Amino acid sequence: MKHKSILYLIIFPLFLLTTGMNVYGKADVVSLQNLRTELLVNPVGIDVTQPRLSWEIRSAARATVQTAYQVLVASSEEKLSANEGDLWNSGKVGSDASVHVKYNGTDLKGNARCYWKVKVWTNKGESAWSSPATFTIGLLNSIDWKGRWIGMDRSFPWDSETQWSRLSARYLRKEFETKKTISRATAYIIGLGLYELYLNGQKVGDQVLAPGPTDYFKGVKYNAIDVTGMLKPGKNAVGTILGNGRYYTMRQAYKPYKIKTFGYPKMLFNLLIEYSDGSNEAIVSDDSWKLNADGPIRSNNEYDGEEYDANKEMPGWNTSGFDDSKWLKATFVQEPGGTYEAQMNENMKVMATIKPVSIKKLKANTYILDMGQNFAGWLRMRVKGSKGDTVKLRFGEDVQANGELYVRNLRDARSTDVYILKGGVQESWEPTFVYHGFRFVEITGYPGTPAIEDFDGRVIYDDMKTTGGFLTSDATINQVYKNAKWGILSNYKGMPVDCPQRNERQPWLGDRTTGAYGESFIFDNSRLYAKWLDDIRQSQKEDGSIPDVAPAFWRYYSDNVTWPSTYMTIADMLYRQYGDFESIRKHYDSMKKWMDYMAAKYTRDGLITKDKYGDWCVPPESKEMIHSRDPKRQTDGVLLASATYVHASSLMGKFAKLLNKNEDAAEFAARASAIKDAFNKKFFDPGKGQYSNNTITANLLPLVYGIVPENSREKLMTSIADKIMIENKGHIGTGVIGTQWLMRGLTANGRPDIAYRLASNRDYPSWGYMAENGATTIWELWNGNTANPEMNSANHVMLLGDLVIWYYENVAGIKSDPDAPAFKKIIMKPEMIDGLTYARASYQSVHGLVKSDWKKAGKTFIWNISVPANTRALVYIPASSAEKVKEGKKAASASDGLKFLKMEGNRALFEAGSGDYSFTSNM
């Protein structure tokens, strides 16, 4: 059927998860019958045989719902163009599913390229076929890899292996010849610890610090890259540089009982070439390669920096015809031990370039450069001088009162890059295998007088899409949101790390228990956190124990509940925000194993007794302290462990039901019920309406986890409100655990005004206090400007708790219904808070763009929203009655796409189909 409305079908390829693929993109403005799409990404190297396909529908017609789809997957462009799905023709499938549609065709083989397209039927009409998209299957089995691991398992005379080890980069090269016409070529590489790959002198890809970090004894990631256009007829050359990364960690191996090290850098490489005559050739890593460690990268260490001697450069080393007669023969080395896995999450790259704001002379030959923003990355420098001139760049987050660089909070990380000039020409340099967390740079040895124009800040984080935007009428909230965004992106490093600057940079589970959920509104972090679940699973002990850090680069198996329970909350976030059911299925048994282990080992008198960290980083009684020693501020560890276990049991029950494991669901419900009874018996004082010693966290957790008796909820909420507003004088009093539920807990229980007070404060302790004191990211401590420097990172995210969730779900009113995940059904209910006059937010969900833009003008409420096609929304409009609500120029109840449901308090509740709406109402 034809329809005058415009329907856009948008296919956009990206790897959504380790178990599949989702596809995202952008369409031209076209008619329904002449549909076109613009392909943004070609996924290469998927190591699953049933990838999941997704598409986005955009329609100018309101309430557009998909009724059916048809997917074609073909082995060639020609077959797909002829509408021949020789790999899979789904036929017309009656379904509204447009996300995570699993491939169900013939078995897919390793290195196979697949071409696919989709068409949909909606209640508004039928689309044309989309433009073709592609995906390529990777090397599915270790036996598919040809060649051997190569490297050199020793250091060299100019290296040193100490607490501050210096190990130069290894350069490897090989020449080969192609004598036929090439139809396709794919490079597969596992370069450990980090690699850069070159073909015929050109860098392959724009990734940096690749591949993603793992526990290399358990799993190693490979990258697959289409390099067809980089090869040429006749002689070719391939070259790699291997850096140290998290693989060679001798720098920290002075604590071998705590810190893992894996060995010297090494590589496995396959270049698979397909010729137009149907023949194939493989260029592989073997002992025909040549190796040289006496190149320009003299040392590279994530914590201490990189040293580069331009006089050691080897022009043409990665091109054919280079004289490598003095290079060593690469040797066969032991493989790392971990399973070969396609890297389905994004690599890091240079995501932005920023300019410094000032440069000041500190003393003779010493300058301080201010980037104006704390971030993670490195500095690109332009310099001209004499041969042998040496420039040192030392990085820090702050300066001292006398203007000198502040480095005490870096602990023993030296965080210094060194560049030795070749001289005589303008030279430009940036490091390759390090990153720094910094705002300020101490520059020494620079020939002449350095200027702002000589430097750029290179912002490094995972190549993920920014999906959210947020702005309000409150300047403090806006600055904190900006600080949060910079802090979050700074700590995406192929895994979520705690900080980017000191000698730690570890993937602590407790930092992201709830934080990952908030982050998902700003960035598409679905692939990163799906990968992190794999890291957690690989770090699990045979008995079920899960560490506090995963990958377990630090051997911290403390068996507390609050940190490892992140395993469940991340899986739940991926399902809620992205509709990722596969991660739940994949990890369910491992999660259950941990739940059983903790219950069996640590249940006493009906409660879970093991806790390690307490309510970490609660504001202390003195601004000079790191941790509070006041018992009145500390929350009982058994209370924390038991309440968290109840919440984990609730999530496991939900997962069990999704997986049709009804006996498990009943078992987890019984566990939670038993703990609730013992919990209330031990900790609850119904007369006072408080738990334990009446800390905010002690009262908040049973409130949000459904532990408190229903008839005591109001009294308990009064205790929480009094604690904040009277005893704490309207300031925050929670640490990492309590802050995970603080803003939503207050709002859900009738006190969004208190949540707003906490969000907008600018004095201590608060997020605004950080901004008031010059922070451009989020601190590790509420008192990060005054506490002991051994633990006062200026770029952390753990204290954000649920603040970003609150921004989007409660202030802007953009929330996915838990019963219809991935924003298939959207709950739009912004809180009307005195002091806020407008809020604007957008979120690119997997179904499409959601927008909420509201403002108050006296008693008038104006709200513009966008609901994606193939979804619907429950819209709660502040109004005295439904008759007081208009959409456009007509009564909302008579407007196309809207259905009035009921009045709910001072809200008119409508169900909205997809489309753009403009509401006005009298409140």
What can you tell me about this protein's structure?
The protein is α+β, with helices and mostly antiparallel strands. It folds into five domains: 7-137, Immunoglobulin-like (Sandwich); 143-292 and 314-345, Galactose-binding domain-like (Jelly Rolls), CATH 2.60.120; 350-462, Jelly Rolls (Sandwich); 468-809, Glycosyltransferase, CATH 1.50.10.10; 813-922, Maltose phosphorylase, domain 3. The strands form eleven sheets. Strands 19, 25, 26, 30, 31, 32, 33, 36, 37, 38 and 39 form an eleven-stranded mixed sheet that branches. Strands 40, 45, 46, 47, 48, 49, 50, 51, 52 and 53 form a ten-stranded mixed sheet that branches. Strands 4, 7, 8, 9, 11, 12 and 13 form a seven-stranded mixed sheet that branches.
* Broad structural category: alpha+beta
Main pleated-sheet profile: 11 strands, mixed
**Could you tell me how far the N terminus lies from the C terminus, measured between alpha carbons in angstroms?**
43 Å
Tell me the number of structural domains.
5
Radius of gyration: 29 Å
Indicate the overall shape. globular
Strand content: 25-35%
Calculate the mean pLDDT score and round it.
Answer: 93
Task: Predict the CATH topology of the largest domain.
Answer: Glycosyltransferase
Q: Could you name the ranges where pLDDT drops below 50 across 5 or more consecutive residues?
A: 1-42
What is the strand tally?
53
Q: What is the count of DSSP helices, taking H or I runs of 4+ residues?
A: 15
> What is the CATH class of the largest domain?
Mainly Alpha
Helix content: 10-25%
CATH architecture of the largest domain: Alpha/alpha barrel
